């Protein structure tokens, strides 16, 4: 048997790769590109495949970017170059015109990659094939105009010849017009006749009966013979002169084209390389356009033999379904060194063969350098050999049956498969008696497993499922099936065997129970039980999937509700800040207005030295202003009115409890004099005038102390809620920070906050020095140090207060 790394010879037709190539050809703009499509072949070279994939990926980016890239005149000029290669030959005007247009396209491509070289490095490397400058294009452009004709000024001789032709044509026209006008006036010509050309010479139409009345030469006659086309004798010399000039023009043009062809001839090797580049670009662009058509990408390519495909699709099938406005079910495929051969089982028409053909086609596309229809985070690898056994290979001439052809393929597989082989076998073991076919298939499967080959195999044989379940390197796969509806789901599930669901389908269709019972008896109880187990497993998995989907849906709803709640809370907080800001702004404005009014009033009293009446009027105005302001404070909570203190009658004696009238402080009388008393308020002793004191009972004193204590506690609570252990004094002057820092330390000490931070910045170090000098002399401070370097370092002082 002849060794082939691709088996069989018609492999591309069997996996529909010929249709892929046809679709790529349709995207080419010329035969330059289609010639490359015909040369596409399977490659095991990692570097080459990677380069092809990257080139196509870069061109997809060009198409997606909308950048202007040359799209016309990718002309195949190789036939013209073959013609020009021969000495003495020359290219025609239209051929030079095509060459000129394609050279312009070639220059446009080179210029594009010179501008975008960093964005498209792999494509830019291809410009190395182009060694041409613009001298040939300029030489052709000097001779050939935009319409593909030789220019009048291509040479001095041609310019003179064409000027003379124009002169003689004008002279000929004038003479003919005069003669024709006279003949028409004498009735010698048809009514609708006009000057025309016959045999390259200008003639006038004359009625046949009048042809002898005008001297000249007859060149032609009408179909009816009633009109002849006559060249008057007077214009004979002029026409002869024009004929001679035409020959001279043709000779000059031929000379110019020959000279231009001589200019092309030595450049033919360089031109062939340049047009090889142009053909590659047309081919790569066609691959990129096809990739966009089928949603293909460049996957992750690994040298380690691992296939991990996400959402792979059969491109031909997907395009066909798209035309029917249907969607394809994507394939999830994974093969590695532990699970090299995937044995897929399941019901007929469940998608086994489509899965196998999808895997085969996509892998083959990849190794031909094409982008593949799957997710970009998929992992792919390359193989050295590619074997398939798909379809009916019955050969009447060689007298091979279907089963014999399968065995011929298996012979090739078992002889030549190794660890760098990927193989695909559809309906493994079918075509002969199941008992023997299954046994032979089992032996072949075990042999292929030992070879280390990778691949996909489809089967209905139960013994192959059992072998796959217990053999290293093999793994079962099942095509999912909706048991309730008896419909295939076309989804591959790796890790378990599939059931054919033959009994379930037959029962659903309505086959008699007696027949089904007979079938169950002859199948065997173990086999029926095994199939039932698979069916039960499928049902349980479907129920689990439904439950999981419901759980995920509830989780999504919960997440939405949580997001909505968080948004609402954020909105409320934002509105709170907004309203507070507005209230503060309004209060500030009100305060400014009131202060301004008061200042103006004071100023008026001082400047005008207002009398009592005017002063009284001003005070009344201020009182009105106070009444206007008061309603804005009506919503503020009112403090509960304090109960009045019960004052005792009689003279104050030593030991009495008294209250200072002006500030409400409670004190004890220590000693008395005529007008003063020595009192103690806690540890503080003081002399006050007797008229500032009032005598109260001990019970009243206790009640007042409780109210005072509560008042102080409320104050402390407010302070605690509004106190921040961080003080930022950056940007202040040294003298400004003294009371600020002192108050900060005192409040922290009073509220029992032990750890404080003072942010003074680094700068010139003045604020840091002033701050730390103060802290050293504060008795409440136990220690101070720099903050951690990540959180401000020496720009922040950490203060620890004493217990």
From TrEMBL:
Residues 784-803 are annotated as: Disordered. Its EC number is 3.1.-.-, 3.6.4.-. Residues 727-802 form the Smr domain. Keywords: ATP-binding, Coiled coil, DNA-binding, Endonuclease, Hydrolase, Nuclease, Nucleotide-binding, RNA-binding, rRNA-binding. It comes from the Bacteria. Pfam families: MSSS, MutS_V, Smr. GO terms for molecular function: ATP binding; ATP hydrolysis activity; ATP-dependent DNA damage sensor activity; endonuclease activity; mismatched DNA binding; ribosomal large subunit binding; rRNA binding. GO terms for biological process: mismatch repair; negative regulation of DNA recombination; rescue of stalled ribosome. The keyword DNA-binding applies. Residues 530-628 form a coiled coil. ATP binds at residues 346-353. Acts as a ribosome collision sensor, splitting the ribosome into its 2 subunits. Detects stalled/collided 70S ribosomes which it binds and splits by an ATP-hydrolysis driven conformational change. Acts upstream of the ribosome quality control system (RQC), a ribosome-associated complex that mediates the extraction of incompletely synthesized nascent chains from stalled ribosomes and their subsequent degradation. Probably generates substrates for RQC. Endonuclease that is involved in the suppression of homologous recombination and thus may have a key role in the control of bacterial genetic diversity. Homodimer. Binds to stalled ribosomes, contacting rRNA. Belongs to the DNA mismatch repair MutS family. MutS2 subfamily. This is Endonuclease MutS2. It comes from Nitritalea halalkaliphila LW7. The lineage of its organism: Bacteria, Pseudomonadati, Bacteroidota, Cytophagia, Cytophagales.
